[in-house]
Each structure stands twice: as structure tokens, then as C-alpha cells.
Design a protein that fits this description.
alpha+beta, three-stranded antiparallel sheet
Length: 88
């Protein structure tokens, strides 16, 4: 999976530097998705065969890539900033 490969490269590059990675992403609710989240998810699927992720799905991806989700910052828009650090 391309996303795992990209994150693993970031893990390697940031290891031992104290750096944090900040991703601005949509995090789809596990239940009762609002219209905006559902529309973005459908658009991503139709246009790229991809999909938006729930928080547990993001955490699984980060875990497989060598990152830990350190902080989740809610924005006034529909996105969130996910702050990652390499696993110790």
C-alpha cells in the first residue's frame, strides 16, 4: 500500500530527531457520519477507488508504519490535524 510505504519512509527519516509529523485529514465517524464526511468518502471512492478513514483505521495505518498518534486536534472545518511521532 502506497500510504504505508510513504509513512514508513517518514518514520525512517524522522527517527531520533524529535520531529513530529502533522497530517491534516478528514476522520470519518465510525457511526452516523454527517453528510459532509459521507460525501467526501463517496467522492474519493468514485474518483480514486480510495476511501476516507475512521480514527481506528488511521491508528492501524500509523501502527503498521511505525508511528504513534500523539495528538488529535479538531478544526472548525471538517478536518483534523493528526500529530504523529515515531515509535520508541
Amino acid at each position: 500500500m502506497i500510504s504505508t510505504r510513504v509513512l514508513r519512509n517518514l518514520t525512517t527519516a524522522s527517527m531520533g530527531t524529535g520531529a513530529r509529523i502533522a497530517l491534516m485529514e478528514l476522520v470519518v465517524p465510525e457511526l452516523n457520519a454527517d453528510f459532509s464526511s459521507a460525501a467526501f468518502d463517496m467522492q474519493m471512492f468514485v474518483n480514486t477507488r480510495g476511501r476516507e478513514r475512521t480514527l481506528p483505521e488511521w491508528q492501524n495505518l500509523f501502527d503498521r508504519s511505525g508511528f504513534v498518534l500523539e495528538e488529535e486536534i479538531g478544526l472548525q472545518s471538517i478536518g483534523k490535524i493528526l500529530v504523529l511521532r515515531p515509535k520508541d
